[in-house]
From TrEMBL:
The chain crosses the membrane at residues 6-24, 55-72, 78-97, 118-138. It holds the Pfam family DUF2269. The keyword Transmembrane helix applies. The keyword Membrane applies. Keywords: Membrane, Transmembrane, Transmembrane helix. Signal peptide: none annotated. It comes from Paenibacillus validus. This is DUF2269 family protein. InterPro entries: DUF2269_transmembrane (IPR018729).
Length: 143
């Protein structure tokens, strides 16, 4: 059972991080896209954000089960650090993508400013995901 939970945990981490790489080339294309093509790109962004959110639920739940089965306490440095970063990222993700995507769907928007904001959010969120991944993989003794 433990091995299957580790497998589910790793797959959910891959699925929650991986699709963001597809969005990187789309940032440049968002600058000039119009009409249906623009909405297709925006729909792709929205899909990746939702996919990451839902696989994040699986990731957290499987992580909690792994913690419980292994008997690791919350005070383990890399677990505590990961949860601190996780909770910070939840607030960030809630405000980073959806409002900007909604504004980009409106007819009179400042596209250059919004795409730049979306790009910053994308790179920052990927950095946060990699920090959490690093904590989980390297399991550093932070204190």
């Amino acid at each position: 059972m433990y091995a299957w939970l580790v497998y589910i945990h790793v797959i959910s981490a891959m699925v929650s991080i991986g699709p963001f790489f597809v969005l990187l080339p789309m940032l440049r294309k968002l600058q000039s896209a119009e009409g249906a093509v623009l909405h297709t790109y925006l729909d792709s962004f929205q899909f990746v954000v939702r996919l990451s959110k839902h696989t994040g639920h699986v990731l957290v739940f499987s992580g909690l089960l792994l913690m419980w089965l292994s008997g690791l306490p919350w005070t383990t440095p890399w677990i505590f650090g990961t949860f601190v970063v996780l909770f910070a990222s939840l607030f960030f993700m809630a405000r980073a993508f959806s409002p900007t995507l909604r504004k980009l769907r409106q007819p009179d928007h400042e596209r250059e400013v919004l795409v730049r904001k979306l790009g910053r959010a994308l790179y920052l969120y990927m950095f946060v995901l990699f920090v959490m991944l690093g904590l989980m993989v390297m399991k550093p003794a932070l204190w």
